[in-house]
Amino acid sequence: MKIYSNLKHNLSRLFRSISKFFAGKKEGIIAGGANNDPAGTITYLQIGASSGYALLWLMVVTTPMLIVVTQMAAKIGIILRLGLARVLKDYYGRRIAFFLVALVALANIFTIGANIAGMADLVAITVNMEAQYVLFVVLVGLFVLLFLLRKRYADISKFLFILTPISLVYIITAFLVKPDWHGVALGIVGARMSFELHYWMLVVGAIGTIIAPYIIFWETTAEIEEKKTIKDLKETNSGISWGMTLANIICILIVVLAATVLGGHGGVIENIRQASEVLRPLAGDAAFGLFAIGILASGFVAVPVLISSTAYMVADLLGWRAGLDKKEYQAPAFYLLIIISVMVGILMNVFNVNPVQTMIWSQVAAGCVAPFIVVALLLVCNNKKLMGAYTNSRSANVVGFLTIAIMVLSIAFFLFDILK
């Protein structure tokens, strides 16, 4: 009995330690999970299908960039207790704030609509009602909306946290398909440049997926909602490092998976069913069903984050009361913004759009917006009047400026290829 009692006690302590470890890193893990949304996953699959392992270096290079940028966003929320939009308006002027919020809001709504499109397409195919695709767009949009309206922040964050591990299915499958690991290593350490339009479009799309503007605004707000204080900053940074590293490991393995299964020689993914073939080595004929579960789960992590971050930043900018922990009558304008974001996302898909192409182009749009937001973060995080002793370190600034340089050069090459 004593042995059993000691074992039970030790297991209980172990469980509490693991729970405490992950609970302290919840926001970082949620943000990392939201980064691998349906639009992002499809973009990574397209990168692998068309470019093979050639762009893996980008995923590795952007990992420290993603971590530093997200940590800056979290630090603003913890130190200033204000959303990024409010900080920009109060200290850098309304014009700059309105310009940046408008850019991110447009990119967010485009991505909301794209993710709803992908999720609806999956559901329609699953129930063999593809002709009623628009109906499922409406149903998926309304389901997400009702979820946000009926749940409080604590419930929502817990739900998002639980769903994030489903992305691990891509990790398992990537090892099962036995990729060319020598080719993978070469793709990671050797940057191969190309001046084809498709190449730079995917580079910009990958950047827009990895360093998504909406994640920056969400992270600032999430720390406020969680009522984090300065003493939580170290734990928060650790959570972000874990969450974002895991997110980028998953994105690398999604690219490896697509390159191995779908060819990696200029292939184009035309539809959701074709994309689901990457899971056939794991699930056989059940590949589509498993893929549907993975995409829908990531969608139900990312879309609420997208919608909420859009509503938060607009409400912050206009000085409206906001918060998922508030009742609808306590923050009516905030919840109206949530409803508008979903409705515009739904209306986008009334027209005959290709869900796969819509998802990829939404990430390209986000990639074009991202450098403006990183510049804003650097301005705020290096302002001693605002941040006091918590201004950026030299290493954070080096990574920040390198991030902007890579983003701007990628966009320049992309635009050059479009115009030539």
Describe the structure.
With 420 residues, this protein is mostly helical. Helices cover 79% and strands 0% of the residues. It is built from 20 helices and no strands. The protein has helices at residues 2-24, 26-35, 38-51, 56-80, 84-92, 94-126, 133-150, 153-163, 168-176, 181-189, 197-210, 213-225, 233-262, 272-276, 280-283, 287-318, 332-348, 355-381, 384-387, 394-419. Helix 4 crosses helix 20 (394-419) and helix 16 (287-318) crosses helix 17. The longest helix is centred in the first third of the chain and has 33 residues, at 94-126. The protein is globular and about 55 Å long. The N and C termini lie far apart (79 Å). Mean pLDDT is 82; it is low at 6-24 and 30-34.
Strand content bin:
under 5%
Cα Rg: 21 Å
Q: Span from first to last CA?
A: 79 Å
The unreliable regions are 6-24, 30-34
Q: Categorize the overall geometry.
A: globular
| Overall average pLDDT | 82
Largest sheet: none
Question: How would you summarize this macromolecular structure in one to three sentences?
Answer:
By secondary structure, this protein is mostly helical. Helix content is 79%, strand content 0%. The N and C termini lie far apart (79 Å).
